[in-house]
Amino acid sequence: MLYFRHHTGEFFMTENNPIAAMRREDRRIGDTAEIHALLARADIGFLATVSGDQPLVTPYSFWFDGKRIYFHGAKKGQSKEIMQQNPRVCFTVAERGRYLPAERAMDFSVEFASVMVFGTGRMVESQAEQIYALQGLMDKYFPHLKPETDYEPITKKDLRPTGVYAIDIETMSGKRKAAPDHPHTGRLRAFFSPEDVTE
């Protein structure tokens, strides 16, 4: 299994990460740029932490700046408390493609692409990094709006009630399943229009 390890701001190929190992090597995304692109465009990511023997998965809006993952929340909350006890975290995003029918029930499937990130979670203490992260979130989710033109910029006062968190990435891996076109391939029937349905 090849995966990416963060080192001096770069991700390079290395081996022997049993957690990130992948059974289907043919589905591994080997292109760093493709992994970064999926992290950049995903709307929601899922943070996995562990407190004692209890795992917790929490969804977050987030921003990937090419080196770290940033998200925000309450200054006092489960994520902060757990990361203080155990900063080791996993973060994952996924996209769904087409639903894939088949001749046999157990051969039905779905296209997807996903990224798993492993690293260390922390609360951002520097005000400069807090503003950097929050502005990155603004730019990601509201790219058509600009500070000072469309809204008041983030101030140090705004930071007082806000917890800003970072994941310093150590390793990441990507996985993808894609299939050739099939006459019955589609998405959920609830989203079909009549002309999309092929019997």
Structural overview:
- The protein has 199 residues and is an alpha+beta fold.
- The chain has one domain (3-180): Roll (Pnp Oxidase, Chain A).
- Helix content is 17%, strand content 41%.
- The chain is built from 3 helices and 10 strands.
- It has helices spanning 32-41, 78-85, 127-141, and strands at 3-7, 10-14, 28-29, 44-51, 54-61, 63-64, 68-74, 88-100, 109-123, 162-177.
- Strands 1, 2, 3, 4, 5, 6, 7, 8, 9 and 10 form a 10-stranded antiparallel β-sheet that branches.
- Strand 8 (88-100) and strand 9 (109-123) form a beta hairpin.
- The longest helix is centred in the last third of the chain and has 15 residues, at 127-141.
- The model is unreliable at 1-16 and 187-199 (pLDDT under 50).
Which labels suit this protein?
disordered N terminus, alpha+beta, Pnp Oxidase, Chain A, disordered C terminus, 41% strand, 3 helices, 10-stranded antiparallel sheet, 10 strands, 199 residues
Structural category is: alpha+beta
Give a count of the beta strands, DSSP E runs of length 2 or more: 10
Reported for the largest beta sheet, the result is: 10 strands, antiparallel
Shape: globular
Which CATH first-tier class would you pick?
Mainly Beta
Assign a percent range to the helix content. 10-25%
Low-confidence stretches: 1-16, 187-199
CATH architecture: Roll
Write the H/E string, N to C.
EEEHEEEEHEEHE
Q: How many discrete structural domains?
A: 1
CATH topology: Pnp Oxidase, Chain A
Mean pLDDT: 81
Query: What fraction strand?
Result: 35-45%
User: Termini separation (Å)?
Assistant: 41 Å
Number of discrete helical segments: 3
Radius of gyration, whole Å: 20 Å
